[in-house]
Amino acid sequence: ERKAALAASTGPGQTSDGHRVPLLANVGGPADVPAAVEAGAEGVGLFRTEFLFLDDSTKAPSEEAQVTAYRKVLEAFPEGRVVVRVLDAGADKPLDFLTPGDEPNPALGVRGLRSLLEHPDVLQTQLRSLAKAAEGLPVHLEVMAPMVADRVDAKAFADACREAGLNAKFGAMVEIPSAALRARSILQEVEFLSLGTNDLSQYAFAADRQVGSLARLQDGWQPALLDLIAMAAEAAQTAGRSCGVCGEAAADPVLACVLTGLGVTSLSMGASAIPYVRATLATYTLAQCRRAAAAARAADTAEEARAAAHQVLSGE
Ligand code: PEP
Ligand code: MG
């Protein structure tokens, strides 16, 4: 039955009653594109651009090298959405030329957008490369910044995009709890939100994502994480803007239904998860997803939230 459901799993992401939730792929570079196309991804929801920078940690890649790499990904989804995240260096991905070597607590230090605002030349080169890469293509380019903490960060990023002459939507990742709490304020400066649930749980629970023994706190079903997601999704809905999820949480098929019920507007994940999420989402109505989301939020632990959502979805 499972196999039949997966085989029948083609086409756009939607609930059984036709509520559309685009299913997008997370990619780390051109090499990941074939699997995304094969899985029927409707676009890219998170293009992690770090790969280009990790080869040589002493300097940024040339504008030319960046244009070539970005264009390969943009070309693969001619009519689709491609959401590119600007360089997220620091913490677990340090770069010699950007990341201070003497930080006592790198996860809470100069990383993500913070590094780029200290090195505006690096950000400008990347944004100009993206503008050139998208030239003449019908792709819907969206560009977002990692580690946006507040409206000041969001404005600095939007200003940089305008300065680079980028013809794209500008967005903010919500991966710091302050950004979820003040999503409405951040949306005064940028057009869309994307929830990075990996870092959002790390910072909400003060639990280093690289420490395996803290897995209980990094569970995507934690009700406090669901509350933060709901807060951001509701703010986006009120503002008429999109709010996707591009962290690991989107790759769990039942959690994907709960996220849909919380008001998330697209789901981005590793390509291999797309058929499972598509098949599961197609099984339930939007109203069922909402009831499952409410049941999960009413729970006190991740385990209970998972059980409550499964019970709602299987009992109807
Ligand atoms: C996240 O934090 O959830 C995310 C998508 O970004 P990364 O895993 O690359 O930090
Ligand atoms: Mg992150």
From TrEMBL:
- Which GO MF terms are attached to this record? phosphoenolpyruvate-protein phosphotransferase activity
EC numbers: 2.7.3.9
Q: Which cofactor does it need?
A: Mg(2+)
Source domain of life is Bacteria
This protein's UniProt keywords: Cytoplasm, Kinase, Magnesium, Metal-binding, Phosphotransferase system, Sugar transport, Transferase, Transport
| Cellular location(s) | Cytoplasm
Which EC main class describes this enzyme? transferase
Q: Which residues form the PEP-utilising enzyme C-terminal domain?
A: 10-283
| Reaction(s) catalysed (UniProt annotation) | L-histidyl-[protein] + phosphoenolpyruvate = N(pros)-phospho-L-histidyl-[protein] + pyruvate
What does this protein do, in the record's words?
General (non sugar-specific) component of the phosphoenolpyruvate-dependent sugar phosphotransferase system (sugar PTS). This major carbohydrate active-transport system catalyzes the phosphorylation of incoming sugar substrates concomitantly with their translocation across the cell membrane. Enzyme I transfers the phosphoryl group from phosphoenolpyruvate (PEP) to the phosphoryl carrier protein (HPr).
Similarity comment: Belongs to the PEP-utilizing enzyme family.
Q: What name does UniProt use for this protein?
A: Phosphoenolpyruvate-protein phosphotransferase
Species source reads Streptacidiphilus cavernicola
List the taxonomic lineage: Bacteria, Bacillati, Actinomycetota, Actinomycetes, Kitasatosporales
Q: Which residues of the full protein are shown?
A: 241 to 556 of 556
